[in-house]
Amino acid sequence: MAGKQLIPPGLTYLAGNITAKDNLLGTSKAAGARWAKDLNLPQEAETVFFAGCGYQYAGELELLMSMIRKMDKSAVGSDLAMNLAGFQKKLGIDATGILRKVTSRGDSGQAQPLRDAVKVLNRLGIEFGYLGEAEPCCGGPLHYIGLKKDFASHAQGVYTQLKSKGVKRVIGLIPSCTYTLRNLIPNVVDGFDIEVKQFTEVVAENISSQKLRFPRKVKVAYHDPCQLVRYLELIEEPRRILNAIEGIELVEPKWTKAKWSTCCGGGGGFEAVFPELSEILAVNRVRELVETGAEIIVTNCPGCIMQLEAGLKEIKNSDVEVLDLVQVVARSLEE
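Above: the chain sequence. Below: its structure as tokens.
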């Protein structure tokens, strides 16, 4: 108990959502799965697409991060942080209103990368399903926060849930979820036997079967998400994909790229605990990328996208667009 009291209340709140509601936001699983309602994906399959919390709740997570920043600057303790209704007045925000908006709003453009991923995988001839409301949260934040016992218990539940659905292979889009499933969970679950690949791996393996052309000629800078480049060690795959797309010119900073890429300031709850420093890092990173002459910044992580967009807004640059790699590939598929 004493250890948990050392955890910033915002992160305690996230941990509570994962353990109690099986997603970062703490809202209904049906709300998260709404993006796929018209895609007719099988809900049980040997290969499944793992959507993760980042894009399924992207718009709502931006509201949540704003709320958490207020938590960590307040005098509210970790115990109260586990009870949203109990401290909302002290925070000066309508926290329950945020969650009410989340559960009542329709599907948003924030989930477009998920739909684009389905489009790309279908075009590549990959047979796969999506677990929908039955998709478990990977639980990675529990590990990063330091709640190792909670993570181990949750990891066993994730494995049990996937096996109960007959899953043998997972294709993850979000780097942190993919790393958790591929590296962290096998460390605490005996006999873990599910193959896990990240989306860029699957696309890079099958890219030669497709003719890709971006709708216009454009200069693109690629930002390496920390989890993707440093933990999953996927460096060449996204670049191989971008270089295979006609109309795209890949431009990168001379030094801060690949394994030396500068962090955007997000990930692991850092942006919630140190919001001011996180913003500085985001601004520094977008300046490095914009200096290349890029018209589009491409990355492969919802957290990075949120940070990079915030950085561009801070430097008042509305000319550069931020896209997930999957969106670029989807736009480049010839009909």
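Confidence is low (pLDDT under 50) at residues 75-100, 102-107.
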